[in-house]
TrEMBL record, chain A:
It is found in: Cytoplasm, Cytoskeleton, Microtubule organizing center, Centrosome. This is Tubulin gamma chain. GO terms for biological process: cytoplasmic microtubule organization; detection of temperature stimulus; maintenance of centrosome location; microtubule nucleation; mitotic sister chromatid segregation; mitotic spindle organization; regulation of mitotic cell cycle, embryonic; regulation of mitotic cytokinetic process. Coiled coil: none annotated. GO terms for molecular function: GTP binding.
TrEMBL record, chain B:
GO terms for cellular component: cell cortex; centrosome. It comes from Caenorhabditis remanei. It comes from the Eukaryota. This is Uncharacterized protein.
Length: 454, 871
């Protein structure tokens, strides 16, 4: 199968749908579509609207999105806003009848989901069948709550089963792992570990969005101590939009999500992202925002910045371990960039990158990502790094240790046990799998990785 | 007084009548009164001067022997009677030499003043004159006879007294050399004078007149021939008239035509004081020239045609006829015939020969005539060559030739002739230029016009020639690349301007063709449809009628009579004209449309050939000449320009694997995609397609079960993926960079320098050529053409085979192909290394690329221990 296929988005849970809101807001802007799905600009040749939208009979554009939640609050709020009320296909929205939600409980979400899985999958399969050439599914959810993690996990399993060859890429918001940080979900390590098993087993790529890091970066970017969800969501939307820009705006270098080869050694497919998209406000608190006034952002600057461990949207990434390696990474640069500057930047950054010892190739691929022809960029150069690095492991280790602490105390375990069909074996199995993943991360930086087991 | 006078004149023993003496007295009186002998200034000569003159005369006449006698007499008269002395001097002055000589000899001998020595034996001692061998000797102590102290004159002045009118003042001395003004034949001449000539004088001697006649050439000739000779003796005007007539091919009494229509001199001739020989010599060269000229003119007339479509031939014929008239008119004017001059204004500017002038120098005039005629002849002779091979001469060539002639011909007349040709050619060319722009008449329908324009032998081709191959044109414009028409250039019209003339014409041809196409089919594939409105065009053509005026205005500045040598005249006219011709504006607008379309077309080509393979599902179709409609529609949905999509097709004939696609854009866009360019685009397509196929194959393996527990293979596929991706990305980025450059070059809006659209089209063409070269470089097609492609193909097939094996679960075979891939990769990198510019891009692909120069990797083993890299 060739050609540039379409993408579908599936948004699950409160967080997933909030991200949907931010994401689709920016999508309609970037593709020149108004709140009624009509084009606002003359068509540009490079604008591939049909990647994310399909045209209804009256030719207006409808997002190829499926919204799923066990409680109606977020989706209803979204549907009441003038921007979205006429945009989405209401047939693609699934809200649970009783509307009670999953109560931040993975098991609740997972098993409630099983009751409605058929319905949801019907929607998704119908939507997929309406598309000639579906290449992949973008999945947004959080792994700390109930619906996103529980129902999300279930849906990921179903999606993989239904679409074994499609690329499934999740944007998974991980709970604040910071010891000092506050989180409203005390059982999030349980939720996380159960979700993690599905994230390891099902999707092709998991873009890890660490809430703590998001908070930190949003605070830096929006110059506020208490960034709102909107701030954070817009950041995530930005990551999603940039990471799909190549496909949406007709890049021949990487015309489809299938070309993204971020996970050469599954299941190590947990992607950290780093983003820089404003010359005025660096998203990193490490860099003095004022510093940027005094110098011009160049491709080299952006590259250098993105490759710093602190730029990663994973809170543990700053804990740099000496043998952390980059397995595969894509850097998308946007803005007024001449082709040759990227090529020269690529040559200069090569030596900065640490690779697994057996690598005889360069894991970082830098490319110019096109911009929306309709939106005037406010910045000269911006960039996104999707980085599959072993440096993501400390986050998992930290979360695993939190889980272990909670589990050893059997704290709140009853909440899970009371859910029908749930057994603690599921948690234990998940723990093993996560442990295996962490082992994998340790092994891959070793010399004998390739010949292991031979 | 009377007796004294009588004695003085007639001597003692005169028996003359009284009244004759009285008449002589009257003479004496009048001479004293009027002093008729004057010098050049009209002042009377004094007695002394006259005496001196007489002395000279005596010496001249070799009367030295009588010197003393004469001086004696004059001295005596001077002492006794001044009036008589003066009178005698005057009359003697008037006395013809012969008479003086004779009478002085006779009378002095008679008076025994002079002795005559007779050297014979009959010595007469009583003879007091001494006359020996006809030599007179003065007798010493002899005295003239005297009466009242008045001596008797020793010479006879009576003839003078009989004929002279003393009331007349003498004419200036120089007029004594008066010329013959008569055009009578020698017979008449003789008849008139023979009677007064005496061959022998009363002394039995041959008279001087007769001696003159005896030395006459004609008589000698006659005697030699033994018969009478007849010859013309002409005055100069008649003579010149005859010569001029001959040069104008008109026979006369003097010059007649023989059977071959050649002039010959019918009789010997002399002109004025020239004798027959002089005249003959002078006439010889004129005759020769006149025959040359008439011969050439006759030949020329043979080549004249009455009907021809070749307007340059007509022009030359017209010119030659006019020149004959001018030639003739010039002579008419010189002969003083003012009336009925056809080309008065022209001939009046010439140097008038002024034949009516009596004092002209005949040699000089003859030479002038000769020069003029020979100038005329030489030009005519050149033109004869031209007329004979009229097809070898273009207006431009002739213009240059005539310009050179007008500058460098040796004779003024010839320069003028060339100049006239030059001017008429300038007019012709300028009109032709307008003509081809306006297409002679307003044409009612454009299809007719289009037909006319596109027929190769139509009239406009007179000025434009088909260069047959664009390579023969230096620095061709894009229009010329489409249709290699050139206007000739010369030193009078440079190539740039010539091309400026040719460009709008060819452009217009294409515009018209476009229009024609439009009337046939109703799709929007033509350029002229909406962009340039018919109405506007018609309005432009409505101006046609004004063009006569405009041309006249432009041409009015050319002065036929000036040979100042302004090289730029033609260029100036054409430049002015180009500014005014509506076609130029039209083509300019059309060019702009084409230009905009070209830029879009380049964009399409680049996008299509770098990405279409992604969308073309069935890439093995070889049976269709164009992409079929369905496919096209699908492609159009992908954002490819539907209009240009139609131009792309598969090449059915091609056997080469990498030139599958053809591009056949509508005129005039086809200029940008020559076979070579299409070939290159096709190769771009093929190479990128191969890479893409390989990449697709690798991607397919991602979920393969084979890889699950084979980290080595995973790595292998990841390696292949990265490598193919990087090569592909580098190529695409380089093409993108080249395209950016192209687009920058074509960003005419922001260009500071204003250029006309068709100049911009040339910029466009060059920029695209550069782009093509850059693309070829990006794909490394230019160095070791084909080799890189083959290596890439090998690599790619290894990748595909490995992938296939992997998907089929054959890990061993997959690994084998991977090894093969590594080998090919090394070859590829070896080739890259040769390309210094692009090698840095591929350096990262070096296996174990720690060493930037890649040396280690060449020597290192990549085969067995792939984990050898120490970190």
């Amino acid at each position: 199968m060739s050609g540039t296929g379409a993408l579908m988005t599936v948004h699950v849970g409160q967080c997933g749908n909030q991200l949907a809101q931010a994401f689709w807001k920016s999508m309609v802007d970037e593709h020149g579509i108004n709140e009624r799905g009509q084009t606002t600009h003359e068509d540009d040749m490079n604008d591939k609207k049909d990647l994310l939208f399909y045209q209804a009979d009256d030719d207006h554009y409808v997002p190829r999105a499926v919204l799923v939640d066990l409680e109606p609050r977020v989706i209803n709020g979204m549907m009441q806003s003038p921007s979205f009320s006429n945009l989405f296909n209401t047939d693609n929205i699934f809200m649970s009848d009783h509307g009670g939600g999953a109560g931040n409980n993975w098991a609740s979400g997972y098993f409630q989901g099983q009751e409605v899985k058929e319905k949801i999958m019907d929607i998704i399969i119908r939507e997929a069948e309406n598309t000639d050439n579906l290449d992949g599914i973008l999945f947004t959810h959080s792994v700390s709550g109930g619906t996103g993690s529980g129902t999300g996990s279930l849906l990921l399993e179903s999606l993989r089963e239904a679409f074994p060859k499609k690329v499934i890429q999740t944007y998974s918001v991980f709970a604040n792992s910071d010891a000092t940080g506050t989180t409203d979900v005390v059982v999030h390590p349980y939720n996380w570990i159960l979700s993690m098993q599905r994230l390891i087993e099902n999707p092709d790529h998991v873009v890890v969005l660490d809430n703590a890091a998001l908070h930190r970066l949003a605070a830096g970017k929006f110059k506020t101590d208490t960034p709102t969800f909107d701030h954070i969501n817009s950041l995530v939307a930005r990551i999603m939009s940039t990471s799909t820009a190549m496909y949406r705006f007709n890049s021949s270098v990487c015309p489809s999500i299938r070309y993204l080869d971020l996970a050469p050694f599954p299941p190590m497919h947990f992607i950290q992202s780093g983003i820089i998209y404003n010359v005025l406000f660096s998203i990193s608190p490490v860099v003095d925002p004022n510093e940027n006034f005094t110098r011009k952002t160049s491709v080299a600057d952006v590259t250098r910045f993105l490759l710093k461990p602190t730029s990663m949207m994973v809170s543990t990434a700053s804990r740099v371990r000496p043998n952390d390696c980059m397995l595969s990474a894509y850097m998308f640069l946007q803005g007024q960039i001449e082709a040759h500057t990227i090529m020269s930047a690529e040559q200069t950054v090569d030596f900065q990158i640490k690779r697994p010892p057996f690598y005889m190739l360069k894991p970082l691929r830098m490319m110019h990502a096109p911009l929306s022809p309709y939106v005037r960029p406010q910045y000269k150069v911006s960039g996104l790094l999707l980085n599959n690095s072993t440096s993501v492991a400390p986050l998992f280790e930290s979360l695993l240790s939190k889980y272990d602490r909670l589990r050893s105390k059997k704290a709140f375990i009853d909440k899970f046990e009371k859910i029908d069909n749930f057994s603690l074996d599921m948690m234990d199995e998940a723990t093993h799998i996560v442990q295996d993943l962490l082992d994998e991360y340790k092994a891959v930086v070793q010399n004998g990785y390739l010949t292991r087991g031979l | 007084m009377l007796s004294s006078l009588s004695f003085l004149i007639h001597g003692q023993n005169n028996n003359q009548q009284q009244n004759q003496t009285l008449k002589e007295l009257e003479c004496l009186f009048l001479v004293s009164k009027n002093k008729p002998v004057r010098d050049a200034d009209g002042n009377p000569l004094s007695a002394e001067e006259l005496t001196e003159d007489l002395n000279k005369r005596i010496i001249k006449l070799k009367l030295d022997a009588f010197q003393t006698v004469i001086n004696d007499i004059l001295d005596k008269l001077y002492t006794h009677d001044e009036a008589l002395h003066y009178f005698v001097l005057v009359t003697t002055y008037r006395l013809p030499d012969q008479h003086l000589e004779q009478s002085v000899k006779d009378l002095s001998t008679q008076q025994n003043l002079v002795g005559r020595l007779i050297n014979d034996n009959s010595t007469n001692l009583y003879i007091q004159i001494v006359k020996i061998d006809d030599v007179y000797k003065y007798r010493l102590y002899s005295k003239p006879m005297e009466h009242n102290n008045i001596p008797r004159l020793a010479w006879d002045i009576t003839p003078v007294l009989k004929t002279l009118k003393f009331s007349d003042v003498d004419v200036p001395v120089f007029r004594k050399n008066w010329l013959f003004k008569y055009s009578y034949f020698i017979k008449k001449f003789s008849a008139k004078y023979t009677s007064s000539f005496k061959a022998v004088d009363e002394w039995g001697l041959i008279s001087t007149e007769f001696r003159g006649i005896l030395s006459c050439e004609e008589l000698n000739l006659s005697v030699r021939e033994g018969q009478l000779i007849e010859f013309f003796h002409l005055d100069s005007l008649t003579f010149f008239k005859n010569i001029l007539d001959m040069h104008r091919d008109i026979s006369s009494d003097l010059f007649q035509l023989d059977g071959d229509n050649h002039f010959y001199q019918s009789r010997p001739c002399r002109v004025g004081e020239w004798n027959l020989t002089t005249t003959r010599i002078v006439l010889q060269k004129h005759l020769f020239l006149a025959n040359q000229l008439s011969e050439t003119v006759r030949k020329l007339k043979d080549h004249f045609v009455t009907t021809t479509s070749n307007s340059i031939r007509l022009l030359i014929q017209r010119y030659l006829i006019d020149e004959q008239h001018i030639f003739s008119d010039y002579f008419e004017l010189s002969l003083g015939n003012q009336s009925a001059l056809q080309f008065r204004s022209i001939v009046e500017s010439f140097n008038n020969l002024n034949l009516l002038n009596q004092n002209l120098n005949k040699f000089e005039v003859c030479d002038k005539i000769y020069e003029t005629v020979s100038a005329h002849y030489h030009v005519i002779r050149e033109m004869n060559k031209v007329v004979q091979n009229i097809n070898d001469y273009s207006p431009i060539l002739l213009n240059e030739m005539s310009f050179t002639g007008s500058q460098s011909a040796p004779q003024f007349y010839a320069r003028q002739m060339w100049r006239r040709l030059n001017v008429s050619l300038i007019q012709f060319i300028v009109k032709s230029v307008v003509f081809i722009f306006l297409f002679k008449k307003k044409l009612d329908n454009f299809s007719k016009l289009a037909e006319m324009l596109t027929t190769p032998d139509s009239e406009l081709m007179e000025l434009l020639t088909d260069a047959s191959d664009v390579k023969l044109i230096k620095d061709p414009s894009i229009w010329q690349r489409l249709n290699p028409l050139i206007m000739e250039s010369s030193q009078c019209i440079d190539e740039l301007l010539a091309n400026r003339v040719a460009d709008p014409i060819i452009g217009y041809q294409f515009f018209i063709n476009d229009k024609k196409n439009k009337s046939w089919k109703s799709d929007d594939s033509t350029f002229a449809l909406t962009d340039i409105q018919d109405a506007e065009e018609l309005e432009l053509f409505a101006k046609t009628s004004n063009f006569e005026k405009i041309i006249d205005g432009i041409l009015s500045e050319i002065d036929v009579n000036s040979t100042s040598g302004n090289l730029d005249e033609l260029s100036t006219c054409i430049n002015k004209l180009l500014e005014q011709v509506p076609t130029t504006m039209l083509v300019e607008k059309y060019s702009r449309v084409v230009l905009e379309k070209s830029v879009r077309f380049f964009g399409f080509l680049k996008t299509f050939f770098t990405s279409a393979y992604i969308h073309l599902k069935d890439r093995n179709i070889l049976s269709r000449t164009t992409l079929d409609t369905l496919e096209r529609e699908k492609m159009h949905k992908q954002g490819y320009d539907a209009e240009f999509l139609k131009t792309v097709g598969y090449d059915m004939k091609s056997t080469m694997e990498d030139s599958l696609l053809t591009v056949n854009p509508p005129e005039p866009l086809n200029v940008f995609v020559s076979t070579g360019v299409t070939d290159l685009y096709s190769q771009v397509f093929t190479v990128l397609n191969m890479l893409h196929t390989a990449l697709e194959a690798v991607i397919e393996t991602r979920n393969s079960e084979t890889l699950k527990h084979e980290p080595r293979l995973r790595y292998a596929f990841f390696h292949m993926n990265t490598t193919v991706f990087a090569i592909r990305k580098n190529m695409l980025s380089l093409i993108e960079a080249s395209f950016e450059t192209l687009m920058k070059a074509l960003d005419f809006e922001s260009a500071s320098e204003h250029k006309s659209s068709h100049e911009l089209l040339n910029v466009c063409y060059k920029a695209h050529r550069k782009f093509i070269r850059d693309v070829a470089g990006a794909l490394m097609l230019n160095s070791k053409r084909g080799t890189t492609g083959r290596v890439i193909r090998l690599m790619v097939s290894s990748v595909s085979q490995a992938s296939r094996a992997c998907v089929n679960g054959d890990a061993v075979s997959a690994d084998k192909h991977y090894q093969q891939f590594l080998t090919n990769l090394l070859i590829f990198l070896d080739q890259c290394r040769l390309d210094h510019v692009r090698y840095p891009l591929y350096r990262s692909l070096e296996i174990g690329s720690d060493e930037t120069d890649g040396r280690r990797s060449r020597s290192s083993s990549f085969s067995d221990d792939i984990s050898c890299r120490s970190y």
